[in-house]
């Protein structure tokens, strides 16, 4: 959607230093003012599916960061050799190779978590953030800038995901990372967990409100 | 057999709706639900591609990728299941291309109506997701085909319903920050509550 306009400004530059002003801008912009989920509308599926509690949310964020940074760098290195007509399939094969790596690592070192996330790690392949950034940024920029863009966007994605995961676990089961946070006394006074937050509709509605807050604060409105 | 297939269909369309319960295919759902015509076109394209790719991916898993699946070729100890993802995505991309070419040849009207949406389907996570779910649920060939078809129908229902609501929504006055994506998410949530009422129906 707004990807094209968003990157148009950063496209022509030639990075000369590692952490110059432009480089910092590439990382900082997607964190809030051009957030991939709430403003670019990319990668919403996984933002909802894995956020029932905070722990799988964090694992998902790490997995996406690894894939996005990796794919941005590799595609950016290859950008001059990829024929334009078959670029989609080339990108898809780069991305799916990286996702297979992450998936196998997760299965090897944290089998329980890999079962809990089920198909959603595999679905990073079709996560629009990865394809979107490869197409909009990595195909036109040098590897270092692309790496920073991948980092910024995955952090922006993580911020929203952690907000949703935090809200859903706290309101839905009164816990954070599996530890009871809401005191027992409150339950005795009649407090009840919001069961809706654990279910799919709760995720949609909570994300709706987060988008509302985010867009109001960054002054981005649709008509 | 028939009762089982009926149960799979009801589950895929209403109870475990691919969009409202599993959150798959959200991107195109949000982007293409502004007008009913486009929603219907994209919906049918998704149904079609799902019905074709799910059984094909089942065949690939069964005869090429599964542990010991290559026994027919004299290689009973080979396990290629780590290639699952890359094979599925290649099959999906190839199928979408094939569907595009077949439609172009035999039904140019439908091709023109769907034209722009067809290539988009390759990166719709509902397609890959259905294949992966089909695999984890361990369906047989016929069941997989029915599961693919009915998942697609569930997605079609959701996107057409949303397009209808959003057409009406244009005339309402909303807080500026909620317009567009925000309100769409909240309405999707309300729709999901509606579909949740099917949970507990035992067929």
From TrEMBL, chain A:
Example of a GO MF term: oxidoreductase activity, acting on NAD(P)H, quinone or similar compound as acceptor
The organism's place on the tree of life at top rank: Bacteria
Chain ranges passing through the membrane: 61-82, 88-105, 117-134, 154-171, 191-213
EC number: 7.2.1.1
Reactions listed under catalytic activity: a ubiquinone + n Na(+)(in) + NADH + H(+) = a ubiquinol + n Na(+)(out) + NAD(+)
Keywords, ordered alphabetically: Cell inner membrane, Cell membrane, Ion transport, Membrane, NAD, Sodium, Sodium transport, Translocase, Transmembrane, Transmembrane helix, Transport, Ubiquinone
Cell compartment(s), UniProt: Cell membrane; Endomembrane system
Topology in membrane: Multi-pass membrane protein
A GO CC term attached to the entry: plasma membrane
GO biological process assignments: sodium ion transport
Broadest EC class assigned to this enzyme: translocase
Database matches in Pfam families: Rnf-Nqr (PF02508)
Subunit structure: Composed of six subunits; NqrA, NqrB, NqrC, NqrD, NqrE and NqrF.
Entry's family note: Belongs to the NqrDE/RnfAE family.
Function: NQR complex catalyzes the reduction of ubiquinone-1 to ubiquinol by two successive reactions, coupled with the transport of Na(+) ions from the cytoplasm to the periplasm. NqrA to NqrE are probably involved in the second step, the conversion of ubisemiquinone to ubiquinol.
Protein name: Na(+)-translocating NADH-quinone reductase subunit D
Species per Swiss-Prot/TrEMBL record: Sulfidibacter corallicola
């Amino acid at each position: 959607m707004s990807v094209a306009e968003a990157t148009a400004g950063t496209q022509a530059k030639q990075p000369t230093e590692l952490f110059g002003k432009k480089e910092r801008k590439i990382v900082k912009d997607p964190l809030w003012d051009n957030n991939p989920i709430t403003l670019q509308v990319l990668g919403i599926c996984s933002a909802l599916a894995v956020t029932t509690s905070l722990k799988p949310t964090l694992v998902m964020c790490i997995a996406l960061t690894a894939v996005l940074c990796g794919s941005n760098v590799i595609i950016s290195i290859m950008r001059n050799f990829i024929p334009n007509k078959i670029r989609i399939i080339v990108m898809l094969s780069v991305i799916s190779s990286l996702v297979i790596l992450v998936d196998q690592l997760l299965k090897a070192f944290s089998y329980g978590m890999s079962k809990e996330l089920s198909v959603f790690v595999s679905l990073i392949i079709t996560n629009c953030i990865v394809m979107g950034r490869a197409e909009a940024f990595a195909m036109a920029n040098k590897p270092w800038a692309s790496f920073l863009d991948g980092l910024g966007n995955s952090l922006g994605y993580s911020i929203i995901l952690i907000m949703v995961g935090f809200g859903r676990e706290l309101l839905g089961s009164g816990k954070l990372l599996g530890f009871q946070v809401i005191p027992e006394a409150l339950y005795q006074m009649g407090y009840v967990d919001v069961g809706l937050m654990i279910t799919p509709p709760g995720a949609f509605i909570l994300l709706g409100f987060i988008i509302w807050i985010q867009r109001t604060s960054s002054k981005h409105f649709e008509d | 057999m028939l009762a089982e297939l009926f149960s799979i269909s009801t589950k895929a369309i209403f109870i475990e709706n691919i969009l409202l319960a599993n959150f798959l295919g959200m991107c195109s759902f949000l982007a293409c639900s502004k007008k009913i015509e486009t929603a219907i076109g994209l919906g049918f394209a998704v149904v079609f591609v799902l019905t074709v790719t799910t059984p094909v991916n089942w065949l690939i898993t069964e005869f090429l990728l599964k542990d010991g699946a290559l026994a027919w070729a004299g290689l009973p100890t080979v396990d290629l299941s780590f290639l699952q993802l890359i094979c599925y995505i290649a099959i999906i991309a190839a199928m979408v291309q094939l569907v595009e070419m077949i439609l172009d040849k035999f039904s140019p009207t439908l091709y023109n109506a769907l034209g722009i949406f067809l290539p988009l389907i390759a990166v719709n996570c509902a397609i890959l997701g259905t294949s992966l779910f089909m695999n984890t649920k361990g369906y047989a060939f016929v069941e997989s085909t029915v599961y693919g078809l009915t998942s697609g129908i569930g997605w079609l229902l959701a996107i057409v319903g949303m397009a209808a609501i959003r057409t009406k929504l244009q005339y309402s006055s909303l807080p500026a920050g909620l317009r567009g994506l925000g309100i769409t998410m909240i309405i999707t949530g309300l729709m999901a509550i509606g579909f949740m009422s099917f949970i507990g129906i035992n067929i």
